[in-house]
Amino acid sequence: xxxxxxxxxxxxxxxxxxxxxALLAPWxxxxxxxxxxxxxxxxxxxxxxxxxxxxxxxxxxxxxxxxARPSLLAALGIVAIxxxxxxxxxxxxxxxxxxxxxxxxxxxxxxxxxPGLVIALALTAALGPSLVNLTLALGALSIPFYVRIVRxxxxxxxxxxxxxxxxxxxxxxxxxxxxxxxxxxxxxxxVYATMGLSGAVLAASALSFVGLGAQPPMAEWGxxxxxxxxxLLSEWWVAVFPGLAVAVAALGFNLLGDGLRDxxxxxxxx
Amino acid sequence: MTxxxxxxxxxxxxxxxxxxxxLSNVSVSLEAGGSVGVVGESGSGKSSLAAxxxxxxxxQAGAVSLYGEPLASRLGRRTIAQRxxxxxxxxxxxxxxxxxxxxxxxxxxxxxxxxxxxxxxxREQAELxxxxxxxxxxxxxxxxxxxxGGQRQRVAIARALAVxxxxxxxxxxxxxxxxxxxxxxxxxxxxxxxxxxLSMLLISHDLDVVRHLCTRIYVMRAGHVxxxxxxxxxxxxxxxxxxxxxxxxxxxxxxG
Amino acid sequence: MSTPLVDVExxxxxxxxxxxxxxxxxxxxxxxxxGEILGCVGESGSGKSATASxxLGLxxxxxxxxxxxxxxxxxxxxxxxxxxxxxxxxxxxIALVPxxxxxALNPTMRIARHLRLAQRGVDRREASxxxxxxxxxxxxxxxxxxxxxxxxxxxGGQRQRVLLAMALLAHPKLLIADEPTTALDVTVxxxxxxxxxxxxxxxxxxxxxxxxxxxxxxxxxDRIMVMRAGQIVEAGSAHQVLSAPRADYTRALIASVPGxxxxxxxxxxxxxx
Lengths: 270, 256, 273
Description:
heterotrimer; A: mainly alpha; C: alpha/beta; six-stranded mixed β-sheet; five-stranded antiparallel β-sheet; 10 helices
């Protein structure tokens, strides 16, 4: 295999570091995330508190480190739901055709015409604000996006010579779906999923920012930004550092996905 | 009297959403062990004919039979034995092999479909099949993008041979290849036919290739067969103006 | 030949790969006279397309380079030309008819606009009139309908004829035809070849005709050079090269064309071509 492109190495590096941070949060965070210290309220960044402290004197860096876990898990959950649902419905639509395909595709189009974030907002509010409900709502709303990709790719693959040759040799739809379509679909979906993670991190933070996701005192990036937004002009560090974490995560997934696309493209060198 | 391997009778096919028929009342017969060529330009319906024979497209009228046994028009309604009796090699060697599969899996797909077979056994069979199409065994673990165009086309031929077909459909099998590679593949097809007693239906726009491989020729235009007969006769004395124009237009060294 | 239009001397072209710079064209010399059709025959990897790219200044930047050699065109050396110089030359004095007609046309522009843009410095009404004339010459039954069409509404043969019309409207001194008929039906191919031949032999346009099809080369070329692995293995009049080839490689190439041997006999001599 060729060496992965630079942007993929950079993106992969960022994502790997974030994943490690999320996994090892309790061991690497300098303070417990919920340790209140009234004396340190709104302490600016210093050697003791690299990213400063919030209004309750909690260490912001520690809260960001602990916030990585819920934020990234929510993003993963959103993409897993979207991709899983999309792969099943999209491939079924393409392989069965007929009325089922029509219904699925029209529903997808309707769903995609709606403003996703607003609907997710309403949905989460109705289900009750929590990180799990937020993940379910955003995941369900991303299904149509993946349905369209999977169906389109499946239809193209179905016309390729190797699928036709397999049919001529007696292969049934199950063989074709799992032996030919799925392996060829996987790299394409990996790219879209990685890109999707970037959007999911942003969307999850956005909903948490408006109070529909993680509930206090849980440290989650969107919720942390909300805390800081009240005092943005005076104590900027409370909002800016969690904001940076979101931006870096989104950038990392984006670079990784971009590089992955180049890397997996069989046409680009060998 | 020689028996007929593949018979297409009175085939008419109009694709959904099109007004002009792709095939109108086309009949083609392929004798056992024979090689028949179907020539025509783009839009003549020659590739549709192969699609009907193999069951990818169901015609509105007409019948397909194999050694006198009528075949269902849809692939899904044919028995496994009937399906495996007719195999096809496509023009584009890029899309005819699964890019995620190594060569040994590709050529033994038909074997694996038939019965659960261990990988070691499949690899052994793959080696034999590669030998039959004159490819070395060190290609077994390559993927399609690591093969040349000619090698890919040989792999596609080996895959078809794996299920021991009676009829081989060749849809422009050498159009994407360099002349020297084309020559090798044409030689291979003649060898394979002789060794296995296959019947071949060659679809091509290249009159020289058809003339080289086929003893009987059908000339198609706009969904109709305009002329058919023994290859020598058609090339020596084409009766139809269209056939004459087609032969005259083909550039040939020493002509003109 | 007194002063050839194109005089290529010791041309080398290299492309960057993971193993460093790889030579695609290795010291090629040839000349094309005014009104002459020079065939460049070879298989994939022979360097024929790289030669054409060099003559058009279309080697991919950073990945392709000309380490040595000269391409004299009139009194200029094209290897020394910068991009501004090429812009004044390409599509005016040197035109290209590419192999793939679909990707060479802008899908959002009607044919009329393509043909108008091909004639720089001609006023709009004049350009439109010439566009219609040129399509009629290219054998379009209804040129006005074709002018109104978008590329996707035309067949492959029609698109190729539009590209040839675009190239010829600029009245280039040199036409580079890169496998212009490979994707076409034989009857359409015959028509395109006739049109190129007329432009060369009647209007004095020089042509570098790149093809892998020996029959086509025989049909249209005055002279032929046979390329293999970046070098010219044989050059001469079309008649000499194809009917009395001197190089073993040319002989093997000719022998591998079906039609040269009786039907259903081996094309590749035992021992390999």
